[in-house]
Amino acid sequence: MLSLENLQVYYGAIHAIKGISITIPKGKVVTLIGANGAGKSTVLRAISGLAKPRSGRIVYNQAEITGWPPENVVRQGIALAPEGRRILPHLTVFENLQLGAYSRSDKAGIAEDIDKVNGLFPRLQERAQQKGGTLSGGEQQMLAVARALMSRPQVLMLDEPSLGLAPKLVAEVFEIIRAINAQGCTVLLVEQNAFTALRIADYAYVLEVGTIVLEGEGEALLHDERVRAAYLGG
Ligand SMILES: Nc1ncnc2c1ncn2[C@@H]1O[C@H](COP(=O)(O)OP(=O)(O)O)[C@@H](O)[C@H]1O
Ligand SMILES: [Mg+2]
């Protein structure tokens, strides 16, 4: 459904992504794990159109979308829940969700999706009129995911959704990711938290300084000695 072919991304002289190839089949959860600075966010930014690849191709549903502007990528059905808490702190939860639907004009569908997102995130529904900036870290993370869902994506890309969350909330966020996937949304999950990511992933890639060093089924990598040594604390 979505694939990267020999993708290279530079920031000025910094060679951040050194020719990687990744396949994300429809309906699956694919994870990209790796240490801080490995290039995980850059991969998602390149797919989103926020970073321009130097070479290589991004192909989505048989069409090449390399270098497309971000709004066109969203309109094609690929949404990004960015790293950290990139919600709008001065807008309410409800307004943040509406912004997630900026690429759409189907009012009835948007209202339907607000209901759907409220079902997935009851905490957000309770806080609909609260300013985003007053939410807890975990709630802001959930809002970032919920906002991405408001574009009604076919592919949801998540950048470290577990970052900074207490273990109980990590479990909750991952349950929600599972539920979103079960409803038919393809997921590309970027994580430093390899253990949790590998457990929900159908397929995984390990990124080290801009290069894929290992790939395989999530369950298999969970038991791989190299992965255990480097990412799962032996
Ligand atoms: N805007 C930028 N300008 C220059 N270098 C950047 C920029 N963003 C990221 N980098 C560099 O690219 C590399 C990969 O970064 P990133 O994709 O954020 O890694 P990760 O998400 O895996 O932590 C790092 O060396 C980082 O310093
Ligand atoms: Mg990152």
Task: Describe this structure in a few short sentences.
The protein is an alpha/beta fold. Helix content is 38%, strand content 26%. It has helices at 40-48, 70-75, 93-100, 107-120, 122-126, 137-149, 167-182, 194-200, 218-222, 225-231; strands spanning 2-11, 14-24, 29-33, 55-60, 63-64, 78-81, 155-159, 186-191, 203-208, 211-217.
Structure description:
The chain is an alpha/beta fold and 234 residues long. The chain has one domain (2-231): 3-Layer(aba) Sandwich (Rossmann fold), CATH 3.40.50. The chain is 38% helix and 26% strand. The protein contains ten helices and ten strands. The chain has helices at residues 40-48, 70-75, 93-100, 107-120, 122-126, 137-149, 167-182, 194-200, 218-222, 225-231, and strands spanning 2-11, 14-24, 29-33, 55-60, 63-64, 78-81, 155-159, 186-191, 203-208, 211-217. The strands form two sheets. It has a six-stranded mixed β-sheet with strand order 6-7-8-3-9-10, with helices on both faces. A four-stranded antiparallel β-sheet has the order 2-1-4-5, with helices on one face. Helix 3 runs parallel beside helix 6 (137-149). The radius of gyration is 17 Å and the shape is globular. The mean pLDDT is 94. The chain binds adenosine-5'-diphosphate and magnesium ion. The site of magnesium ion has 4 residues, from helix 1.
Mean pLDDT over all positions: 94
Task: Give the percentage of residues in beta strands.
Answer: 25-35%
From the spread of the alpha carbons, the general shape counts as: globular
How does the major sheet shape up? 6 strands, mixed
Q: Total number of β-strand segments?
A: 10
User: What are the secondary-structure elements, in order, as H or E?
Assistant: EEEHEEHEHHHHEHEHEEHH
CATH class: Alpha Beta
Poorly predicted spans: none
Could you tell me which ligands this complex binds, including any ions or cofactors? adenosine-5'-diphosphate, magnesium ion
- The helicity comes to 25-40%
Structural class: alpha/beta
Number of domains: 1
Strand order of the largest sheet: 6-7-8-3-9-10
The name CATH uses for the topology is Rossmann fold
Q: Tell me what the CATH architecture is.
A: 3-Layer(aba) Sandwich
Q: What is the overall number of helices?
A: 10
Radius of gyration: 17 Å
Task: Write out the CATH superfamily name.
Answer: P-loop containing nucleotide triphosphate hydrolases
**Termini separation (Å)?**
34 Å
